[in-house]
Every structure is written in structure tokens, then in C-alpha cells.
Amino acid sequence: MEYAYYPGCSLEYSGKPYDKSIREVFKALGVKLRDIKDWNCCGATMYVSIDKIVACSVAARNLALAQNMGCDICAPCNSCYTILRKVNRYLAWDPEMRGKILEVLKAANLTYDTPVEVRHPLDILVNDVGLDTIREAAPYRFDGLRVAPYYGCQLVRPEHQFDDVDDPMTMDKLLIALGAEVVPFTAKVRCCGGSLMTTYEEVALDLNNNIIKSAEDSGAEIMVTACALCQMNLEGYQQKINKRYNQKHNMPIVFFSQLVGLALGVDPKRLGLQSMLVKPRDLKLIPKGMKVEV
Amino acid sequence: MPSIPPIPEPKRQREAELREAFLKEVAGIPAGEKIKNCIQCGTCTGSCPVSRWMDITPRETVALFRAGMLEEILESRTIWICASCYSCKVRCPMGIEVTDLLYALKRLATHKKIYPRRFPVHALSDTFISSLYRFGRIYELELGLKYFLKTHPLKLLSSIGFGLSMIRKGRMAILPKRIKKIHEVKTIVDRAKELEGV
Q1: Segments of chain A scoring below 70 in pLDDT
Q2: Domain boundaries of chain A, sorted by first residue
Q3: pLDDT in tens, A251-262
Q4: What is the 8-class DSSP label of residue A127?
Q5: What is the CATH number of domain A2-119?
Q6: In B, which residues are within 8 Å of A39 by CB distance?
Q7: Which stretches of A126-218 are assigned E, i.e. beta strand?
Q8: CB within 8 Å: A16 and B162
Q9: How close is the nearest chain A Cα to the Cα of B1, in Å?
Q10: Domain A129-282 is of which CATH architecture?
Q11: Which residue has the higher pLDDT, B158 or A224?
Q12: In sequence order, what are the residues at sequence separation of 6 or more whose Cβ sits closer than 8 angstroms to the Cβ of residue B46?
């Protein structure tokens, strides 16, 4: 099993722990990730508000680079995942747009003839690797840990492919397979506001406050997410939220891949747990029996 | 009965111009023509997590478009508040890609330079694409700094704490990283702009 890896800009820095843990988990499970060399930013939701052909062409450069690697793309950032899939859909839908984008690529000496499938690591882990394989490979379990799986928006809705848009279960199943207790969590696909945290903070703070509250109300000890931006919004702004809404949130927000990595016995440091703003010693998630220094 | 004053000619003309440009954008969206099927049920507005901060709701956006009030839509904060969560799209009973219609409106606003007053959110996209053009990737520190300097300089102060803790955790770069073949990205952007005449 092999995938063309597209980390995206967020995973280089703000979402570094996500990048680290994905690489470690795939390595531990014997799944090869080959980086797409010299990839560029996908344009996210920003470029599409300026110009569509430019936005699609910029993103398509990455698809063109991956084309010759002969495998599916693995894109952990939910926004990159959505954008790359969308570009594939647009290329197949409109011959005129396709013609323009291919012409633009040609100007940079690139071609894109064979569509490359774009996948999310959550989908790959559960549907390609399989829960049984992961369970068998994991020496540790999270028995009794109450977890709220937070999917966010981009992964499940715009280009939905492998799960339900209102009540996705892929992450739930993965966490249950590792022994965790998944709490009923009504905000699992509620929006965190994305870049509104920068542009219209009061809206984003309200949204995140409600999401964390919902997780607390359902008895969760930690929240698990699959998106770098959701993670940053939920984790990085808890103090601001507490001040503004007079709350006492102290909710660890980790990436699903960090939990899988811990279960597989990977050193927490290699999973980027020391880079979380909620300190590892506050995390209740180190599996029983696992000896770690935090 | 009092007579209704006619719409002044310049406004009528501007509307016709905007409408033509918008319909062109709509034609470029898969299933874009379904905007015609909107039954004004309000499922989009009801599903929208941020509609209560909008001055015009997603449902009203379609209604105003039909009423020939595109300029009013572009002057509203609505399209810049949309968080791209796509709840409206997956729930619309008529299969309208509402989020992508809002993107089409954003592009129209950007091309025509019509923005809401005292709400410079669109500046984030400009800052974002300038980073992409120069480095090939997003330089988050500069993105934040430039955006706040352009819009709310005072906000920089309240963001310093967050920024520093991210830098300390190795989660924010102090210097940008440029991709090797940045010329390819520049060629792509330039050529695409040329083709689109923008």
C-alpha cells in the first residue's frame, strides 16, 4: 500500500503535530507515504473568491505532480482534501474549463491527463488498512476514555465520498476499535468558523464555545479532530472563550492520528504531543501501561 | 394611489451589468442553473451556523437576486461571513449548491470591487493569494500581520499571546519557505489570469 502525500501549508507549522502523527502511524502500519515533491498551496477557500480558473489551476499543479506517482493522494488537511477533489470534479464536468486549466498547466510544462483519486487518511486507515489490522497492531488501548469525535465541515460535506454528511461514523468506529468510549456528540459536524477566527472573531468564538460545551455536556474528557484549522480554533482560543463567556473550558483537542499513534506504541514526542497548547501532562489520554515521560 | 418612482437609469444599467457577470459565473458552477428552482423554503438559512450574524440571509440572497438587487447583496456582509461549511448545500431540497453561489458572488464583488462598508474581510483573500504567489505556500505569520495591519491594527495586540505560544511550540514559522519551482506557480497564475482577462 502506497500513497502520494500532500501535507498542505497548515501541516507544515500550525498543524505540525498532525503531520508528524500521520507519518508515524502510516509507518507503524507499514503503509508508505511518498511526498509530492515541491507541492504548492491548494488555494484553500481563499483563491476561489478571487478567480475560479486561477484557483483551480493553482490546485491542479499538485494533481499534475502526483499523476506520475501511480497511486492515490493522501491529503490530511480537510480543506486541501476538499479543494483537490473539487478540482477533479470540475475538470470532469466542464470540458471548456478543463481545456483552460490544461492550457494553463501546459504553460508551466505540466500535464494532467489521468485523474488521481484524492483520499483522506481517516478513510485510508479505516477502509484500506482496516480496523482489524489496526486493532491487531495496537499494543495499547484506551479503555474507559470518553472521547468526542469532531469531524468539522470540509471532510464530510462538500465533496462527501466515504461517510454520511449529517452523522459520519468513520472516526467513531476507529476510536471504538481502540477501546475508547465514544460519547453521543451532537456537535460532531457543527462548523468551527474556520478563518472567521481571523476575520470576525466574535462569531468564531461563539461557535467554538458551543462546540466545546456540547462535548463537555456529553461527558467527553477529550475531543478528537481530523482538521488542522478546527484543532487550532478549538484549542488555541479556549482562554479567550473562557474570558468572554465566563467558562472554565480545559478541553484537550488532539488529532485522531495522535490517538492511533499512542495505541500503536509510538513515543508521544514523535506524535507531536509536546507541541499541543494543552500540555501533555493535562491529557488523560496516555494509555494504561504505557511508560512515557511528559 | 401614489405612483412608484422609477428606478434611476444608472442603477438599472449597473444592475444589468452585474447580472450578466453573475450569470456567467453561475454557468461555470456544476448545477448552477438550479438557482432557478429555489422555492424559498429557508432550509439554507436554518442550517447556516452563521446566518444570525448576516445582514441578508442565504434565502434572502436568492430572493434579492430575483428582485434585481445584486448590488445590495454585494454591499452586504453576508458573502464574507459564510464560513464555507456547506450545510446549506447538503440540505437544500432542490439541490442548489448555495455555498458555490456565494463564492460566485464573492468573485463578482472582487472583480467589481463592491464591498460592504466598514467590513474589510475580503482583505484576507488578497493577503492570502499574495503569499501564495510569492512563496508557493502560505506564510502564516505574515498573513496574520498583514491582514490585521490592513484592517484592525489594534487586534494585533490581542493576538500576540496566541502567536508567541504557537512560535514557542514550533507551530508558527518566523521566516517564509519558498518552493523550488516558484516560477511554475507564477506562470500558472499569470497565464490563467490572461485567459480570464482579469
Answers
A1: 280-284, 291-294
A2: 2-119, 129-282
A3: 999 999 999 999
A4: I
A5: 1.20.1050.140
A6: 179
A7: 146-150, 181-182
A8: no
A9: 45
A10: 3-Layer(aba) Sandwich (3.40)
A11: A224
A12: none
